[in-house]
């Protein structure tokens, strides 16, 4: 998908984000200079608020979108912090990894019923991409509203005309070279190679897509690789790639679980095994085999979220997931997972 396109909406006059925007609960003290979302991230999610989060929210407002409360998490993957609802089944949010290192910024994701789609490694990268796409696709007068919404912060990321002066006529090429790595841009690159009959270049590009560290924690690159290998007639390699993808969180596949499970030749017994792993007996067996209690609890939380992703029934397992994080010593994450407006 085009992540810039994801946030287009009805045009209206720019309204700068203000503290206390009619949310059902205020997370800030009356004297706090932080926005509701920044306070929530700091006090509830126990993470560092992105420096230019307010500017991103201003972009959504300039595009006619209504900002939602960060605590409006009902029905969503519990590790997300919602920013704006794009449609009844889609929201833009930040992803709060439970065991992320302090230096790791929260990625921007699109939240759907069965999981998340990666949009950008961080808020600045997402803003940068939006500005590039706005400059490329809109006349100057209509794009100025978005640039105004970002203000001086945007000038540090992108200046109007940079794309044209780069002489890179392909938008995806510009994004990948000048802005950052984006799944949709990389996937389109692979698809173009296949359409041109250049299967070697397609495989090389897909291998780069799956390179460790490009999209940490996300299974989508490996799932996409499996589908490409299958398309190119490499069914045995596709099966291995699909099984590798399913070792990561199912809610990061970017596809329905069943689609990748078919390539992996996984049947219902795999789901049954996961369900057995989240029983007290299954967890105790792991501990008896030498797995530390904290790791066994983290694994159980991961299994519960994987199972919840199958039908998008996130709220049904909240208490159990939170209990797992408590047992793993992550009390703050447990409280964050349970929090609802």
From TrEMBL:
InterPro entries the record matches: PAB (IPR045287)
Protein name per Swiss-Prot or TrEMBL: Cyclin delta-3
Lineage, uppermost ranks: Eukaryota, Viridiplantae, Streptophyta, Embryophyta, Tracheophyta
